[in-house]
Amino acid sequence: MKSAYEAALERLDAQGIERPREESLTDEVKAKIADARSKAVARLAELEILHRDRLRGMYDPVEREKEEEEYRAERSRVEASRDREIAKIRG
After folding, report:
1. pLDDT by residue (tens digit) across 3-61?
2. Is residue 70, in this structure, part of any structural domain at all?
3. Which residue in 4, 29, 34, 41 has the most C-beta neighbors within 10 A?
4. How many domains, in total, are found in the chain?
5. What DSSP assignment string belongs to 32-91?
6. Residue 6 falls within a domain, yes or no?
């Protein structure tokens, strides 16, 4: 019996789509990527805590919406930064 992964690869071949590359990353590169991800997770957790704390004291819907927009923008910035750093590490 084939695994789901093998079946998916066969479907890709049947559709003429190139198989995903199987990059073998060194342990050093894996460690750097893991470090970049853990830093981003920590920063996102910090943002979430600060965001919730600020929302507790806000009762005006306009101010709450502004805070939500700022939080989403900052979260996107951190995620984009993480993705750029990982791409840079992978070379």
Report:
1. 887 888 888 888 888 776 666 778 899 899 999 999 999 999 999 999 999 999 899 99
2. yes
3. 29
4. 1
5. HHHHHHHHHHHHHHHHHHHHHHHHHT---HHHHHHHHHHHHHHHHHHHHHHHHHHHHHH-
6. no
